[in-house]
Amino acid sequence: MGLLDKARAAATDLAAKADTARVKPGAGGSGSGGDADRYFRDLGVLAYLEANGRSTSLEDRERVMDALKGMETQGTIGTFMLQTSVPPPPGGTVPPPPPQAQTPPPAQSAPSAPAPPPPSWMTKDDDKNN
User: Fold this and answer.
1) How many CA atoms lie within 13 A of 80 on its CB side?
2) Model pTM?
């Protein structure tokens, strides 16, 4: 058997293993990963309809919730992470907010004295004396 034949056999074996691994989570009746995705979608549809004032069937909600609770108890639900969360900003970290200048409140002092009168050259009284 030549080198290429060995590589081809290894690739075929690897492809078969990948197919088996890909099929396993979705096969196996109720409680499988594929079923969980469908039930979560149905729950999302029901929640959306209710949030927008549309009527939904109580029986459908109970059926979906019971199925999801059963799958969670069996441990067949993988993760509860949201798939549509906001991606992090470029660079991987969120920069801290800019520092805010904290100005102290004005000091409470005694009432200020009235403003001084304007200079004499600005008053009209001088015009009458001339």
Assistant:
1) 5
2) 0.43
User: What does the angle CA 39 – CA 44 – CA 47 come to, to the nearest 5 degrees?
Assistant: 125
What does DSSP assign to residue 105? Answer: P
Report the C-alpha dihedral over residues 119, 122, 127, 130, rounded to 10 degrees: 40
CB atoms within 10 A of CB 17: 10
The residues, ordered by sequence, that sit 6+ positions from 34 with a Cβ below 8 Å of its Cβ are 25, 26
> Hey, what amino acid is at 4?
L
Q: What is the dihedral of CA 39, 42, 46, 48, to 10 degrees?
A: 120
> Mean pLDDT in each 10-residue stretch from start to end of the chain (130 residues)?
75 71 48 79 95 93 95 87 76 69 66 75 59
